[in-house]
From TrEMBL:
CDD domains: PAL-HAL (cd00332). It is an enzyme of class 4 (lyase). Transmembrane segments: none annotated. The modification 2,3-didehydroalanine (Ser) is found at residue 142. Belongs to the PAL/histidase family. Keywords: Cytoplasm, Histidine metabolism, Lyase. The keyword Lyase applies. This is Histidine ammonia-lyase. Contains an active site 4-methylidene-imidazol-5-one (MIO), which is formed autocatalytically by cyclization and dehydration of residues Ala-Ser-Gly. It comes from Psychrobacillus soli. InterPro entries: Aromatic_Lyase, Fumarase/histidase_N, HutH, L-Aspartase-like, Phe/His_NH3-lyase_AS.
Length: 504
């Protein structure tokens, strides 16, 4: 059980909630803060003070006053009108993350929402009631208005929820659970949708998958080293300590651990003096991607515990301030940076694939790893596919955050496009994983030609794991099937951290 209180939520907590179905509870101190901030909203309504989002319109309509009797209708209209999401839905995991993150933000006690609404959000998490939320339609400032409105629709019984990969009307789910939809009171609709939880939720899933993928890229690269008789001198700790990047040093250390006991790798001068960059510079290239992951982790964990709606109720309810914490610029930058870091893991992987299949570069392996070069094409088109994926990634890696377009009659005249950046980062991760799956497929075939009895014990274990569902290339076949099997194998390691706990 993960206790939510508006602070202290970590990415490892999110891993447990998202992939291991860990349940959540609300911390008592946070509940008290929520109750106190709600009292402030109710006093504002009672005293007929004019406060944005409570008894005014929204955006450019902020100067329009709303009568006390219409504050409920105002919130209902807000949710319905802002539910303008388009396109395919976010993955169910992202939807689950979005509920958790919005709940955690509201528990900070700055939003003026009723405790019973937050208890319903917690109920949704613990009973796997996940809204169907379209991916497109957010500008990433004024919050993720469209995606979060689709989340709020489920609360009021008007949206769709996931159920066994189908989309079911939420009012049917509430009836099944013997619960009534929530009726939103003053400010509650705005409190639910004015935040960065769509981009951050996708960002959390991106980071968790990326961390696993970064670890996996190391053992896959190490297996390619074996298949290509790579030179291990380039991983000597003194080289990396001389430069001073701890991530680079750590990658070199882990690669040597994977290669411990291998009789396939070589020393400087045994076969050649030095390797190509895609082998020799693995610590420098992969290590730089780990630096990206460190930066992104820091920004995500701040945002996961941030109050990002507007206005915020502070000083025990005495002051209500309109600000701009909903602006997604920090996460927009982080997601654009993540795109570059993961795209590079795929770029260098594709270069190793080329070395594994190219008869002029692969140290005597069969051309394209074919069992009958000429009659059979072997892994020739696998390299084409990898090249296509990395080229697509280069397009997706264009930063979304450099764009902005005004909205709400120029009241909201600069936006982050952070949700677009997060979505594109997710696409890059999926492409990168498939490139690494192709490298794994080629590397395991390469070491088989060399002699698996000469492999390091750790990599031989990985080889056997994959050979359970990926047969040796003895005849041309539909290799896309193999790539998808390997992709699934790699993706599933995000769930249980096997990709992280590779070596003790």
């Amino acid at each position: 059980m993960i206790s939510l209180k508006g602070s202290g939520l970590t990415l490892e907590d999110m891993r447990a909630i998202l992939y291991q179905n860990e349940q959540v509870k609300l911390e008592k101190t946070a509940k008290d803060a929520v109750v106190n901030s709600r009292k402030a909203v109710e006093k504002i309504v009672k005293d007929r003070r004019t406060v944005y989002g409570i008894n005014t319109g929204f955006g450019k309509f902020s100067d329009v006053s709303i009568e006390e009797g219409d504050v409920r209708t105002l919130q209902l209209h807000l949710i319905r009108s802002h539910a303008c999401g388009m396109g395919l839905p976010f993955e169910e995991t992202v939807s689950r993350a979005m509920i958790v993150l919005r709940l955690n933000a509201l528990l900070k006690g700055f939003s003026g929402i009723r405790l019973e609404v937050l208890e319903r959000l917690a109920y949704m998490v613990n009973n796997r009631i996940h809204p169907v939320i379209p991916q497109q339609g957010s500008l990433g400032a004024s919050g993720d208005l469209a995606p979060l409105s689709h989340l709020a629709l489920v609360l009021i019984g008007e949206g769709l929820v996931w159920q066994e990969e189908k989309h079911i009307p939420s009012h049917e789910i509430w009836a099944k659970h013997n619960l009534q939809p929530v009726v939103l009171e003053a400010k509650e609709g705005l409190a639910l949708i004015n935040g960065t939880q769509a981009m951050t939720a996708q960002g959390v899933v991106n980071w968790l998958e990326s961390e696993t993928l970064a670890y996996q890229s190391e053992w896959i690269a190490a297996m390619s080293m074996e298949a290509l008789h790579g030179i291990t001198d380039a991983f000597h700790p003194a080289i990396h300590e001389a430069r001073g990047y701890p991530e680079q040093t750590a990658v070199a250390k882990r690669i040597l651990e994977w290669l411990k006991g291998s009789h396939l790798v070589t020393k400087q001068g045994e076969k050649r003096v030095q390797d190509a960059y895609s082998l020799r510079c693995i610590p420098q290239i992969h290590g730089a991607s780990w630096q990206v992951l460190s930066y992104v982790k820091e920004k995500l964990e701040i945002e996961m515990n941030a109050a990002t709606d507007n206005p915020l109720i502070v000083e025990d309810g005495a002051v209500v301030i309109s600000g701009g914490n909903f602006h997604g610029q920090p996460i927009a930058f982080a997601m654009d940076f993540l795109k570059i870091g993961i795209a590079e893991l795929a770029n260098v992987s594709e270069r190793r694939i080329e070395r594994l299949v190219n008869p002029q570069l692969n140290e005597g392996l069969p051309a394209f790893l074919s069992p009958q070069p000429g009659l059979q094409s072997g892994a020739m088109i696998l390299q084409y596919a990898a090249a296509s994926l990395v080229s697509e990634n280069k397009t997706l890696a264009h930063p979304a955050s450099v764009d902005s377009i005004p909205s709400s009659a120029n009241q909201e005249d600069h936006v982050s496009m952070g949700t677009i950046g997060a979505r594109h980062a997710f696409q890059i991760i999926q492409n990168a994983r498939r490139v690494l799956a192709i490298e794994a497929l080629c590397a395991m075939q390469g070491v088989e030609y060399r002699g698996i009895d000469l492999m390091s014990p750790s990599l031989l274990e990985k080889w056997h794991d994959m050979r359970v569902f990926i047969p040796s290339i003895t005849e041309d076949r539909i290799f896309s099937v193999d790539v998808e099997k390997l992709n699934t194998y790699l993706k599933e390691e995000t769930v249980n951290e096997k990709g992280k706990r590779v070596l003790s």
